[in-house]
Amino acid sequence: MSDHLLPALSFLVAESEPPAARARRRDSVGRSSGETYAALLDTIAPGARVTRVTPADEGATPLTAADIAAHDAVFLTGSPLHLYDDSPECRRIIAFMRDVFGSGVPSFGSCAGLQVAVVAAGGRVRAMGERREAGFARRIAPTAAGRDHPLLRGRPLAYDAPAIHTDEVAELPAGATLLAGNAVAEVQAAEIRHGDGVFWGVQYHPEIDLAEVAAALRRQAEDLIEHRLARDDDDVNAQAALVEALGAEPDRRDLAWRLGLDSQVTDAATRSIEIRNFIELLVLPARARRRR
Fold this sequence. Notes:
Elements: E1 10-14, H1 19-29, H2 33-44, E2 49-53, H3 65-69, E3 73-76, H4 88-103, E4 107-110, H5 112-120, E5 124-127, E6 133-142, H6 144-147, E7 159-165, E8 167-171, E9 176-181, E10 189-194, E11 197-202, H7 210-219, H8 221-226, H9 233-248, H10 253-259, H11 263-266, H12 268-271, H13 273-290
Protein backbone atom coordinates (compact mmCIF):
# COMPACT_ATOMS: atom_id res chain seq x y z
CA MET A 1 0.00 0.00 0.00
CA SER A 2 1.11 3.55 -0.66
CA ASP A 3 1.77 5.10 2.73
CA HIS A 4 1.06 8.62 1.52
CA LEU A 5 -2.52 7.61 0.70
CA LEU A 6 -3.35 5.93 3.99
CA PRO A 7 -4.00 8.95 6.25
CA ALA A 8 -6.83 10.06 3.94
CA LEU A 9 -8.64 6.72 4.00
CA SER A 10 -12.04 6.67 5.67
CA PHE A 11 -13.60 3.37 6.75
CA LEU A 12 -17.17 2.67 7.86
CA VAL A 13 -17.52 -0.40 10.11
CA ALA A 14 -21.09 -1.69 10.43
CA GLU A 15 -21.75 -3.87 13.47
CA SER A 16 -24.60 -6.25 12.77
CA GLU A 17 -24.61 -7.96 16.17
CA PRO A 18 -27.56 -6.93 18.39
CA PRO A 19 -26.87 -4.99 21.61
CA ALA A 20 -27.13 -8.04 23.90
CA ALA A 21 -24.67 -10.02 21.78
CA ARG A 22 -22.39 -7.00 21.64
CA ALA A 23 -22.40 -6.82 25.44
CA ARG A 24 -21.65 -10.56 25.79
CA ARG A 25 -18.74 -10.23 23.40
CA ARG A 26 -17.34 -7.27 25.30
CA ASP A 27 -17.64 -9.26 28.52
CA SER A 28 -15.64 -12.16 27.04
CA VAL A 29 -12.95 -10.41 24.97
CA GLY A 30 -13.20 -6.75 25.96
CA ARG A 31 -14.51 -5.42 22.66
CA SER A 32 -17.37 -5.70 20.20
CA SER A 33 -17.01 -7.11 16.71
CA GLY A 34 -16.76 -3.59 15.32
CA GLU A 35 -14.08 -2.66 17.81
CA THR A 36 -12.12 -5.75 16.76
CA TYR A 37 -12.31 -4.59 13.15
CA ALA A 38 -11.31 -1.05 14.11
CA ALA A 39 -8.24 -2.31 16.00
CA LEU A 40 -7.10 -4.42 13.04
CA LEU A 41 -7.70 -1.62 10.52
CA ASP A 42 -5.56 0.66 12.64
CA THR A 43 -2.64 -1.76 12.21
CA ILE A 44 -3.19 -2.25 8.47
CA ALA A 45 -3.83 1.39 7.60
CA PRO A 46 -2.44 3.61 10.37
CA GLY A 47 -4.04 7.03 10.39
CA ALA A 48 -7.21 5.96 8.58
CA ARG A 49 -10.46 7.30 10.03
CA VAL A 50 -12.69 4.51 11.31
CA THR A 51 -16.36 5.18 12.08
CA ARG A 52 -18.44 2.47 13.75
CA VAL A 53 -22.20 2.31 13.24
CA THR A 54 -24.90 -0.14 14.38
CA PRO A 55 -27.49 -0.14 11.56
CA ALA A 56 -29.30 -3.23 12.85
CA ASP A 57 -30.11 -1.61 16.20
CA GLU A 58 -33.57 -0.34 17.03
CA GLY A 59 -33.51 3.45 16.96
CA ALA A 60 -30.28 3.67 14.97
CA THR A 61 -30.24 6.71 12.70
CA PRO A 62 -30.32 5.45 9.09
CA LEU A 63 -27.34 6.50 7.02
CA THR A 64 -28.07 8.35 3.81
CA ALA A 65 -26.45 7.45 0.51
CA ALA A 66 -24.25 10.51 0.91
CA ASP A 67 -23.20 9.33 4.40
CA ILE A 68 -22.03 6.00 3.01
CA ALA A 69 -20.45 7.51 -0.09
CA ALA A 70 -18.29 9.76 2.09
CA HIS A 71 -16.21 6.67 3.00
CA ASP A 72 -13.64 4.71 1.02
CA ALA A 73 -14.82 1.30 2.23
CA VAL A 74 -17.50 -0.40 4.30
CA PHE A 75 -16.84 -3.42 6.54
CA LEU A 76 -19.62 -5.70 7.83
CA THR A 77 -18.90 -7.68 10.99
CA GLY A 78 -20.01 -11.08 12.14
CA SER A 79 -23.22 -11.49 14.11
CA PRO A 80 -25.52 -14.12 15.67
CA LEU A 81 -28.40 -12.84 13.51
CA HIS A 82 -30.05 -15.47 11.30
CA LEU A 83 -30.58 -13.76 7.97
CA TYR A 84 -33.44 -16.06 7.00
CA ASP A 85 -35.50 -14.67 9.93
CA ASP A 86 -37.91 -11.87 9.14
CA SER A 87 -36.88 -9.92 12.23
CA PRO A 88 -36.64 -6.12 12.49
CA GLU A 89 -32.86 -6.42 13.04
CA CYS A 90 -32.43 -8.49 9.89
CA ARG A 91 -34.59 -6.14 7.85
CA ARG A 92 -32.59 -3.14 9.02
CA ILE A 93 -29.14 -4.62 8.28
CA ILE A 94 -30.26 -5.92 4.87
CA ALA A 95 -31.66 -2.49 3.97
CA PHE A 96 -28.36 -0.93 5.02
CA MET A 97 -26.42 -3.35 2.80
CA ARG A 98 -28.65 -2.55 -0.17
CA ASP A 99 -27.79 1.11 0.35
CA VAL A 100 -24.09 0.18 0.46
CA PHE A 101 -24.42 -1.58 -2.89
CA GLY A 102 -26.27 1.45 -4.24
CA SER A 103 -23.54 3.81 -3.05
CA GLY A 104 -20.85 2.09 -5.12
CA VAL A 105 -18.47 2.07 -2.14
CA PRO A 106 -16.37 -1.14 -1.99
CA SER A 107 -17.44 -3.40 0.86
CA PHE A 108 -16.08 -6.39 2.75
CA GLY A 109 -17.74 -8.76 5.19
CA SER A 110 -16.87 -11.79 7.28
CA CYS A 111 -19.15 -14.60 8.48
CA ALA A 112 -22.59 -13.00 8.89
CA GLY A 113 -21.23 -10.02 6.95
CA LEU A 114 -20.99 -12.25 3.89
CA GLN A 115 -24.48 -13.61 4.56
CA VAL A 116 -25.93 -10.09 4.81
CA ALA A 117 -24.47 -9.18 1.41
CA VAL A 118 -25.77 -12.43 -0.11
CA VAL A 119 -29.34 -11.80 1.06
CA ALA A 120 -29.26 -8.09 0.16
CA ALA A 121 -28.28 -9.01 -3.41
CA GLY A 122 -30.97 -11.68 -3.77
CA GLY A 123 -29.28 -14.88 -2.54
CA ARG A 124 -30.25 -17.23 0.30
CA VAL A 125 -28.86 -18.25 3.68
CA ARG A 126 -29.80 -21.35 5.68
CA ALA A 127 -29.07 -23.07 8.98
CA MET A 128 -26.29 -25.68 8.85
CA GLY A 129 -28.24 -28.31 10.76
CA GLU A 130 -25.90 -30.71 12.53
CA ARG A 131 -22.77 -29.41 10.79
CA ARG A 132 -20.48 -26.93 12.53
CA GLU A 133 -17.24 -25.07 11.98
CA ALA A 134 -16.18 -24.43 15.55
CA GLY A 135 -12.86 -22.67 16.00
CA PHE A 136 -11.40 -23.12 12.54
CA ALA A 137 -12.53 -23.77 8.99
CA ARG A 138 -10.27 -26.52 7.63
CA ARG A 139 -8.85 -27.17 4.18
CA ILE A 140 -10.44 -24.19 2.46
CA ALA A 141 -9.72 -24.52 -1.25
CA PRO A 142 -9.92 -21.67 -3.76
CA THR A 143 -11.97 -22.37 -6.86
CA ALA A 144 -10.50 -21.85 -10.33
CA ALA A 145 -11.82 -18.28 -10.19
CA GLY A 146 -10.53 -17.85 -6.65
CA ARG A 147 -6.99 -18.89 -7.50
CA ASP A 148 -6.70 -15.86 -9.76
CA HIS A 149 -8.77 -13.47 -7.63
CA PRO A 150 -7.00 -10.68 -5.74
CA LEU A 151 -9.01 -11.32 -2.56
CA LEU A 152 -7.13 -14.59 -2.03
CA ARG A 153 -3.71 -13.43 -3.22
CA GLY A 154 -1.12 -15.10 -1.01
CA ARG A 155 -3.35 -17.99 0.08
CA PRO A 156 -2.20 -21.52 -0.85
CA LEU A 157 -4.31 -24.17 -2.57
CA ALA A 158 -5.60 -25.29 0.85
CA TYR A 159 -5.61 -23.34 4.10
CA ASP A 160 -7.32 -23.03 7.48
CA ALA A 161 -8.85 -19.91 9.04
CA PRO A 162 -10.62 -18.90 12.26
CA ALA A 163 -14.32 -19.68 11.96
CA ILE A 164 -17.35 -20.35 14.11
CA HIS A 165 -20.83 -20.31 12.61
CA THR A 166 -24.14 -22.16 12.52
CA ASP A 167 -25.53 -20.67 9.28
CA GLU A 168 -24.18 -20.75 5.73
CA VAL A 169 -24.82 -19.42 2.24
CA ALA A 170 -27.35 -21.66 0.49
CA GLU A 171 -27.41 -19.83 -2.84
CA LEU A 172 -25.25 -17.03 -4.16
CA PRO A 173 -27.09 -14.20 -5.91
CA ALA A 174 -26.83 -13.34 -9.58
CA GLY A 175 -23.65 -11.38 -10.17
CA ALA A 176 -21.66 -13.40 -7.63
CA THR A 177 -18.52 -15.46 -8.12
CA LEU A 178 -17.66 -18.36 -5.84
CA LEU A 179 -14.02 -18.00 -4.79
CA ALA A 180 -13.45 -20.74 -2.20
CA GLY A 181 -15.14 -23.55 -0.31
CA ASN A 182 -14.46 -26.64 1.76
CA ALA A 183 -16.11 -29.91 2.74
CA VAL A 184 -18.26 -28.26 5.42
CA ALA A 185 -19.44 -25.09 3.68
CA GLU A 186 -19.52 -24.80 -0.09
CA VAL A 187 -19.24 -20.99 0.06
CA GLN A 188 -16.19 -19.85 2.03
CA ALA A 189 -15.35 -16.81 -0.10
CA ALA A 190 -17.19 -14.89 -2.79
CA GLU A 191 -17.32 -11.69 -4.80
CA ILE A 192 -20.72 -10.09 -5.29
CA ARG A 193 -21.39 -7.40 -7.87
CA HIS A 194 -24.78 -5.82 -7.34
CA GLY A 195 -26.07 -2.44 -8.47
CA ASP A 196 -23.11 -0.08 -8.43
CA GLY A 197 -21.28 -1.97 -5.69
CA VAL A 198 -18.57 -4.60 -5.38
CA PHE A 199 -18.42 -6.78 -2.27
CA TRP A 200 -15.68 -9.21 -1.27
CA GLY A 201 -16.48 -11.54 1.60
CA VAL A 202 -15.56 -14.70 3.48
CA GLN A 203 -17.46 -17.09 5.71
CA TYR A 204 -14.53 -17.24 8.13
CA HIS A 205 -13.01 -14.56 10.38
CA PRO A 206 -9.72 -13.04 9.17
CA GLU A 207 -10.22 -10.16 11.60
CA ILE A 208 -10.07 -12.08 14.89
CA ASP A 209 -7.07 -13.35 16.84
CA LEU A 210 -6.76 -16.67 18.64
CA ALA A 211 -7.81 -15.23 21.99
CA GLU A 212 -11.12 -14.27 20.37
CA VAL A 213 -11.45 -17.76 18.88
CA ALA A 214 -11.02 -19.22 22.37
CA ALA A 215 -13.62 -16.84 23.79
CA ALA A 216 -16.06 -17.72 21.02
CA LEU A 217 -15.70 -21.42 21.84
CA ARG A 218 -16.48 -20.72 25.48
CA ARG A 219 -19.49 -18.54 24.58
CA GLN A 220 -20.90 -21.32 22.40
CA ALA A 221 -20.06 -24.22 24.71
CA GLU A 222 -23.70 -25.30 25.07
CA ASP A 223 -24.13 -25.59 21.30
CA LEU A 224 -20.83 -27.48 20.89
CA ILE A 225 -21.89 -30.00 23.53
CA GLU A 226 -25.36 -30.37 22.02
CA HIS A 227 -23.82 -31.16 18.62
CA ARG A 228 -21.35 -33.65 20.12
CA LEU A 229 -18.23 -31.69 19.29
CA ALA A 230 -17.44 -31.76 23.00
CA ARG A 231 -18.63 -34.02 25.81
CA ASP A 232 -18.87 -31.32 28.45
CA ASP A 233 -17.69 -27.89 29.54
CA ASP A 234 -14.31 -29.32 30.52
CA ASP A 235 -13.73 -30.44 26.92
CA VAL A 236 -14.62 -27.00 25.59
CA ASN A 237 -12.44 -25.25 28.14
CA ALA A 238 -9.49 -27.55 27.39
CA GLN A 239 -9.69 -26.84 23.66
CA ALA A 240 -10.15 -23.11 24.26
CA ALA A 241 -7.13 -23.09 26.58
CA LEU A 242 -4.93 -24.64 23.86
CA VAL A 243 -6.08 -22.05 21.31
CA GLU A 244 -5.59 -19.23 23.79
CA ALA A 245 -2.08 -20.44 24.69
CA LEU A 246 -1.07 -20.60 21.02
CA GLY A 247 -2.37 -17.08 20.54
CA ALA A 248 -0.18 -15.89 23.39
CA GLU A 249 2.85 -17.75 22.02
CA PRO A 250 2.36 -18.21 18.25
CA ASP A 251 5.83 -19.74 17.85
CA ARG A 252 4.89 -22.73 20.04
CA ARG A 253 5.24 -25.52 17.48
CA ASP A 254 3.97 -28.09 19.97
CA LEU A 255 0.67 -26.25 20.37
CA ALA A 256 0.33 -25.67 16.62
CA TRP A 257 0.91 -29.39 16.10
CA ARG A 258 -1.69 -30.38 18.66
CA LEU A 259 -4.24 -28.08 17.04
CA GLY A 260 -3.25 -28.95 13.47
CA LEU A 261 -2.52 -25.33 12.56
CA ASP A 262 0.22 -23.60 10.61
CA SER A 263 1.28 -20.03 9.79
CA GLN A 264 -1.89 -19.43 7.77
CA VAL A 265 -3.55 -19.07 11.19
CA THR A 266 -0.74 -18.42 13.66
CA ASP A 267 0.86 -15.50 11.78
CA ALA A 268 -1.23 -12.37 12.35
CA ALA A 269 -0.47 -10.75 8.98
CA THR A 270 -1.23 -13.93 7.05
CA ARG A 271 -4.38 -14.61 9.05
CA SER A 272 -5.84 -11.24 8.01
CA ILE A 273 -4.57 -11.28 4.42
CA GLU A 274 -8.04 -11.00 2.84
CA ILE A 275 -8.64 -7.66 4.56
CA ARG A 276 -5.21 -6.41 3.53
CA ASN A 277 -5.85 -7.50 -0.05
CA PHE A 278 -9.25 -5.82 -0.05
CA ILE A 279 -7.77 -2.48 0.98
CA GLU A 280 -4.75 -2.63 -1.28
CA LEU A 281 -6.29 -4.19 -4.38
CA LEU A 282 -9.88 -2.90 -4.37
CA VAL A 283 -10.25 0.09 -2.06
CA LEU A 284 -7.15 2.07 -3.03
CA PRO A 285 -7.64 1.66 -6.82
CA ALA A 286 -11.33 2.59 -6.48
CA ARG A 287 -10.40 5.64 -4.43
CA ALA A 288 -7.85 6.72 -7.03
CA ARG A 289 -10.43 6.41 -9.82
CA ARG A 290 -12.98 8.49 -7.92
CA ARG A 291 -10.43 11.27 -7.39
CA ARG A 292 -9.33 11.59 -11.00
